[in-house]
Specification:
With 377 residues, this protein is α+β, with helices and mostly antiparallel strands. It is built from 8 helices and 20 strands. It binds flavin-adenine dinucleotide.
């Protein structure tokens, strides 16, 4: 007889760990199944930090969820006894007509967010690590900062298990099936379990469980670098804001020195390498480093020092770069959660709450229509 739970969560990474925490808090019998360890480097959530920002060039529809994400990161950090959010202010900079500047400004205006509009020259004066083109335009939003993504997974799992959740690591889910009359059965490489509801939060592996997503939620290899600055004081959290910067060389994201002694940066979509999550290379090459230095040399010359660390990671990218958060068509017992396209981690706190709301009550107070599966039909 298989053990029976209220909810099974497949994948205990960024989103799954938050869902386990939220569900266990509500007294749900929850089982989280993770094929690797708690905190590993094969998925999408490692690398110490992630950018969080209220100004959202991707679309103003994210802002209400972001407000709640900020609240939850603070509350969860307080409960865990470690800050999970560090405020640095945020810069979104690009040529004037580019969506990074225009979209960021639109979201600030639509939601009445405190912000300043700066030229590139003003950014360079205020944050002297920068040498942006003087005619660039930037939005500075003071709430931007970093979420400590690796610690947040540990926090969520620690508090989920303290509240009664079972978390199984090194247990690979092989398949799930609906049970006639309601509920689901989950088969792993160690056994079988049943539950009333199933949350699929398997990151880059989501299409292993929802084959229709194979060409829709596509794993993409990324590489992030940490580079030792010659003037470290210009790249410390008090002096350098988290940033998204569009330049001729690509769209880059940057985070101040924290945890690893180097300025952290990556290029969205990196070298455009796609494939099954198990097939993407975890190694790093000179071409990876070169792609990142293309931003450092002209725009952040004092951070263009020796490599401290290069690390591969994985995006799961949808065609419109919006998330997937929805119930499975024809089966409300199964919830699909793929909030990525390179910008999902900051939402993990609120996504955990949304997934718990969907699993327990069948609805969310947020408008999730942008994240529906039916938009791909
Ligand atoms: C380099 C990089 C930089 C990023 N920067 C930012 C940023 O600055 N800000 C931001 O908001 N977002 C950012 N993102 C995106 C963000 O990190 C992701 O959206 C987020 O980590 C996705 O979390 P997840 O829970 O979906 O995936 P994961 O954390 O990878 O979790 C999925 C889990 O499912 C498990 N799993 C898969 N298959 C199975 C199976 N068969 N059985 C059991 N377990 C399974 C995996 O092992 C994994 O632990 C970045 C991503 C990358 C790669």
């Amino acid at each position: 007889m298989a053990s029976r739970y209220d909810v099974i969560v497949v994948g205990v990474g960024g989103m799954g760990s938050a869902a386990c925490y939220q569900l266990a808090q509500r007294g749900q019998r929850v089982l989280g199944l993770e094929r690797f360890d708690i905190g590993h480097t094969n998925g999408s959530s490692h690398g110490v930090t992630r950018i969080i920002r209220l100004a959202y060039f991707e679309s103003p529809v994210y802002v209400p969820m972001l407000r709640r994400a900020f609240e939850l990161w603070r509350e969860t950090g307080d409960r865990f006894g470690e800050p999970l959010l560090i405020t640095t202010g945020g810069i979104d900079a690009s040529p004037e007509g580019d969506r990074v500047f225009t979209g960021s400004l639109e979201s600030c205006r639509a939601h009445d967010l405190p912000h300043e509009v700066l030229t590139g020259a003003e950014v360079n004066r205020r944050f002297p690590g920068y040498r942006l083109p003087a005619t660039h335009r930037a939005v500075f939003q003071p709430d931007g900062g970093m979420v400590l993504s690796e610690r947040a997974i540990v926090a969520h799992v620690t508090m989920a298990t303290a509240a009664g959740a079972e978390i199984h690591t090194r247990e690979k889910v092989l398949e799930w099936q609906p049970i006639a009359g309601g509920g689901v059965r989950v088969v792993t490489d160690r056994g079988g379990y049943e539950a009333g509801r199933l949350i699929l939060s398997a990151g880059g592996w989501i299409s292993d469980f929802v084959p229709a997503l194979e060409a829709i939620a596509v794993p993409e290899r990324q590489v992030v670098g940490w580079f030792r600055p010659s003037a470290p004081e210009k790249f410390a959290p008090g002096a350098f804001p988290v940033s998204v910067v569009a330049v001729d060389e690509g769209l880059f994201y940057l985070l101040p020195v924290y945890g690893i002694p180097g300025l952290k940066l990556g290029r969205y979509h990196h070298l455009h390498e796609h494939g099954h999550a198990d097939a993407l290379s975890h190694g790093v090459t000179g071409a990876d480093e070169e792609a990142l230095r293309a931003c450092l040399a002209p725009y952040l010359p004092e951070a263009n020092g020796p490599v401290v660390k290069l690390q591969s990671c994985m995006f799961t990218v949808t065609p419109d770069e919006h998330f997937i958060i929805d119930t499975m068509p024809g089966n409300d017992d199964v919830i699909v959660a793929s909030p990525c396209s390179g910008h999902g981690y900051k939402f993990a706190s609120v996504v955990g709450e949304i997934l718990a709301d969907l699993a327990v009550g069948g609805s969310s107070r947020f408008d999730l229509s942008t994240f529906s599966l039916s938009r791909f039909a």
